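ingest -> fold -> write
write: protein_1
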Amino acid sequence: MNIQKRIIIIFIVLTTLLPIILEVYFVNTNDYPVIWSLLILPAMGTIIAFPSWKTTIFTTLIFSIIKYTVEILERGLYQTDLSSLILGSLIKWVILFTIAFYVIQNTKRLKAIQELTLIDQLTEVYNRRYFDLYMEKAIPLSERTGTPFHLIILDIDFFKKVNDSYGHTFGDEVLKILAKTIQNNLRGSDGLVRMGGEEFAILIPETTTEECHLIADRIRQAVETTDFIYKGKKISVTISLGIAKYTGETIHELYDKADQALYQSKKNGRNKITLSHH
């Protein structure tokens, strides 16, 4: 939980207790409608911290129950001005649901914007920015839990020749088909990133080296047998892959390990998989 959410939760707790304390203190006055209006503050804080319609409905119900329970316990059922309490509740419900509508809509827009900044527009997979953010969390997590983490770097064999022979439009189509083919052969926990050009990275958490190699080979075979069609003609496309296991190095060093393994796959004839032994 980040600091901002902790502050909001503390705010919610304090502003929830405030009207209850004031109600007990001002029990002999007629100020309780004003006092209970303060409950809108923690309700707003809850909606802002956890924006959803379920949260909004649950929050309004909980704070209404708190208000009625305290009032009835303090004044007794027949001494409580229920009409004022109900009217106040209805007004607050309208206010809170209006606030919730705008908060939820704004949250959706922000999420969409964030996704756009992390998604490669051509292939619709993650981009380099996502890779950097992911690795900043994945490496420390692997260290804390002691679970293995692998990085696969791959690119298309002779991709420049594909572009030169068939044009960049077909080259873009190859990249899109490749991305979909790879995604179809990954698990839900894995991540696919387009690093730039024809180079991709695959993030493989909590997986043994043997399992990672099987995943890589499944992808290699799937690409090799995929139909890349140009004007009715099937074009052969293959990929080379390099695998590196995290062993305590920096993110840059891990990437270099996988990249060197990829280079070795190219050197060995392409359409190969090489595991880094460093």
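write: protein_2
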Amino acid sequence: MGSFIIRDVIHGDIEFDDNIKQILNCPEFQRLHRIHQLSCEYLVFPTATHTRFSHSIGTYHVMKKLIEHFTVKLEEKGYKVKKEDKQLAYVAALLHDIGHGAFSHTFEKIFSLKSHEAWTMSIIKDKNTHIHKKIIKLYGKAFLQKLIDVMSKSYKNQESSNIFSIIATLVSSQTDADRMDYLLRDSYFTSVTNGRYDIERLIKSFGVTQINSELRIYINEKYMSTLEEYVLARYFMHKEVYQHTTKRHMEICLCLIFKRVKEILESKTKIFCDDALKNLILKKNITVSDYLKTDDSYFMYHIMAWTKSKDDILVFLCNCFLNREQFDIEVSYDKDMLKDKINKLLKKHNKQEIKDLNNEYFYIETQKQVNLYVSSTENIWIKSKDDDKLYDLSQKSLIINRENAIKDYSSKNIFISGTLFKIIYGIDLKL
């Protein structure tokens, strides 16, 4: 059969062969249509309604460009990139986010379960999923195991471990296909223009060398400005989008909703809740089948239903989230001072004093912490034009130097809800 094309706003025409098209059509992959890429970011940036589906096919497209580039570079080093190696890279890129839960990363904060990467592995390994069956049918069992090895970076015993290491780096690293797509995509849909960078030139900048029998990806120093543009784009997107105060506010509100539902369920009070969601909230045995039910629509249906609950705290929190109502009082002074003021008020009305504000429903604290570049866990290597040696980015960049790289941008905001305080304690909050 011929190729299949999807028109994408970021990359233009994205072409898929018939095998990839069949994977796209699996229910587990189609589910990504129903998960926002940026959680509840649309409450801040109204056009940020793009999905994990569009990001995943974008990542696949970027991976194809990277593999095309590295095939030439590796063959110059005497390494043959086989058709199966390319297919592994494409499928790994396509499926890298298949394990995301509802509201993307917020899901992990709410339920404190295993990471979306771990769920991705579970979905691919589960013999009952369409994805698992389709991969075996199209590519074979050996391919499936190699895919798992590449995505989990456990490829040391593979015959082509050097090629595998390159693929794994392109799937997950500081300069991977995932980041290359989401920075451009998220920048476009939020209209935050300083998240843009020159992807074609960045791909062109990559080289590969062999150090102690291992292959290592680097960037030629002459393309330093292109790399700096990319790193700065990531920094500004975290500062202005991913860690936006209002977005964090709404995420915490979402977490408080499910915290309250958990308390209601544990008290045996009757409340509407699907069995799969109940198992998630109470941290009972969660099957892959149950997990795959979780998408944004599924959660929103429950949140809307809970606005009719008999629990006033839950109703208030659900309405706050649905209607983008932030807690009404922003506190400009110290958290301990706030607690003292509130406890004096509670004591005056013969109410039990608060021990920890973080456990209170009327209290929200948003924090923003952004690194420009951190090399302690993973390096971006630069090939010097002077001596052909590899150096960490922070050693060669005048912008992203060691001094700047270890500095964090941080801020904290405290909000409280006078309305919710009165619902809980029956007292008007006057600070």
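write: annotation protein_2
Residues 52-76 form the longest helix (25 residues).
The CA atoms of residues 373 and 405 lie 5 Å apart.
pipeline exit 0
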